[in-house]
Automatic annotation (TrEMBL):
<dbReference type="Pfam" id="PF01535">
    <property type="entry name" value="PPR"/>
</dbReference>
<feature type="repeat" description="PPR">
    <location>
        <begin position="32"/>
        <end position="66"/>
    </location>
</feature>
<feature type="repeat" description="PPR">
    <location>
        <begin position="67"/>
        <end position="101"/>
    </location>
</feature>
<dbReference type="GO" id="GO:0003729">
    <property type="term" value="F:mRNA binding"/>
</dbReference>
<feature type="repeat" description="PPR">
    <location>
        <begin position="102"/>
        <end position="136"/>
    </location>
</feature>
<protein>
    <submittedName>
        <fullName>Pentatricopeptide repeat-containing protein</fullName>
    </submittedName>
</protein>
<dbReference type="InterPro" id="IPR002885">
    <property type="entry name" value="PPR_rpt"/>
</dbReference>
<comment type="similarity">
    <text>Belongs to the PPR family. P subfamily.</text>
</comment>
<dbReference type="InterPro" id="IPR051240">
    <property type="entry name" value="Mito_RNA-Proc/Resp"/>
</dbReference>
<dbReference type="InterPro" id="IPR011990">
    <property type="entry name" value="TPR-like_helical_dom_sf"/>
</dbReference>
<dbReference type="Pfam" id="PF13041">
    <property type="entry name" value="PPR_2"/>
</dbReference>
<keyword id="KW-0677">Repeat</keyword>
Amino acid sequence: MFALIDGHCANGTMECAFALLETIDKMKVHPDGVTYNTLMQGCSREGKVEEARQLMEEMKRRGIKPIHISFNTLISGYSKRGDLKDAFKVHNEMLSIGFNPRVLTYNALIQGVRKNQEGDLAEELLKEMASRGIRPNDNTYYSLIEGIGNVDEFLRKGDS
């Protein structure tokens, strides 16, 4: 069943994925964290971040602990639509329960910051990454350069 749910999520046929979830639930087969995270990612890709958030809340009610991918999926989804308030709310929730952000977490936040043209906040995130010993990757730099829109300006900022 998981492979079918995964396939529907990958193809963007979320209504079919949720129908399968309902079917397995009726069969008293409870979905695991992988299934929930797959559904969350599918929802997020389709721009249905609130549905992804509801899935995470359902996970918790069922005693399934969210993992990094759960949080990163929500942060990415909120950031893609420019909703920094909710992206940072999830980030703070992640920190409050002891999860350390990863480069993917910061990349998702930087994407939202870029979308909202909040350059100073991007610099703050870079500093936070450095303080946590997290090295930016190619995607981090790409997002920052794209946000600034000028490689020379990006390099000047890096020198200061």
